[in-house]
From TrEMBL:
Belongs to the ABC transporter superfamily. Spermidine/putrescine importer (TC 3.A.1.11.1) family. The gene is potA. It catalyses: ATP + H2O + polyamine-[polyamine-binding protein]Side 1 = ADP + phosphate + polyamineSide 2 + [polyamine-binding protein]Side 1. Its EC number is 7.6.2.11. This is Spermidine/putrescine import ATP-binding protein PotA. It comes from Sulfitobacter undariae. GO terms for biological process: putrescine transport. Residues 4-225 form the ABC transporter domain.
Amino acid sequence: SPILSISDAVKTYGDTHALNQVNLDVAEGEFLTLLGPSGSGKTTLLSAIAGFIKMDSGKLTLRAEDITNRPPEHRDFGMVFQGYALFPTMTVRENVAFPLKVRKKPSSEITKRVNEALEMVQMGAFADRMPSQLSGGQQQRIALARAMSFSPQVLLLDEPLSALDKKLRADLQWELKALHNQLGVTFIYVTHDQDEALSMSDRIIILKDGGIQQQGDPNTLYNRP
Ligand code: ADP
Ligand code: ADP
């Protein structure tokens, strides 16, 4: 059974159907990518899953439990969103510790998990820096460590690499994929970059005008041998 299900999701802004009857099942451990041009509804769909926006109608279940009306902080997703940057006045360590503190974990566990998360993204040496002292790619690594520090079952990522240059983007794509394979966590990944979607995804959902236009694994979708 799917880890996450969205049924009949509708969200309109005036005359715009940002989500137009979207139905989607996400399998446990899947790397699912939402692909589509600007304005196709990718961020709206991810934000509805995260709970940042309320759907006009529709239902969302996590492991068969109805979470449609649950606030974002009680959905327990790891999140890397554009509008969800590192806290600039906190050190790297404090940033990564934040989701654990919110969840009232004991301090010994926080220390251990923060160190593990920083090692995971190879940023252990930067624990006491401020975000402003890091490059864009390093900041994204820390954002990823923060999103994963509490071992979420599902990670939501909204164009996490779009602000980075081409070389760094390629490196981090590879690292993200490796992390996904290693952890077995479910990834829901938003991008407008077809190459990025092709190189990382188990399944690609192509959105258009707020609806699912096409979906499949990369090879089937693009007829590759
Ligand atoms: P994408 O992430 O694929 O670029 P969005 O989900 O951001 O697309 O937007 C889908 C559509 O909904 C677009 O037409 C966008 O202009 C509109 N939209 C999204 N958020 C809002 C909002 N807060 N107010 C008005 N229109 C919005
Ligand atoms: P993306 O990079 O995914 O296309 P956008 O830049 O379109 O994202 O949107 C960023 C934020 O602005 C989102 O939270 C979205 O809901 C909001 N937004 C998008 N379109 C509109 C709009 N037409 N009016 C108001 N808010 C919007």
